[in-house]
Q: What sequence folds into this?
């Protein structure tokens, strides 16, 4: 197992020796954005589409199967746009 910062021999030890240091940075954007979007887009917490009695309900704290499916699609679209299209990255280390 390799440790961060450890040098790695890329050619197996023969001939020209090229080495590379393993990166110690990690991309935290998918984790943090996924966490925040999951909380904000939970059906019934802030809003719910479709609602139980109307098309849009605010802070009802109830849910249904259709709302779960709609909020899942909304989550996927927003998450994909932020991570892939806009290329948001959060590095540590």
A:
């Amino acid at each position: 197992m390799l440790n961060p910062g450890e040098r790695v021999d890329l050619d197996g030890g023969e001939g020209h020796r090229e080495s590379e240091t393993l990166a110690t940075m990690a991309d935290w954007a998918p984790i943090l954005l996924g966490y925040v979007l999951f909380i904000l887009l939970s059906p019934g917490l802030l809003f719910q589409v479709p609602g139980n009695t109307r098309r849009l309900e605010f802070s009802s704290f109830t849910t249904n199967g259709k709302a779960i499916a709609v909020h899942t699609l909304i989550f996927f679209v927003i998450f994909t746009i932020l991570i892939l299209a806009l290329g948001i990255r959060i590095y540590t280390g």
About this structure: Residues 8 and 14 are 13 Å apart (CA to CA). The beta strands are 7-9, 19-21, 26-27, 47-48, 57-58, 91-92. Confidence is low (pLDDT under 50) at residues 17-22.
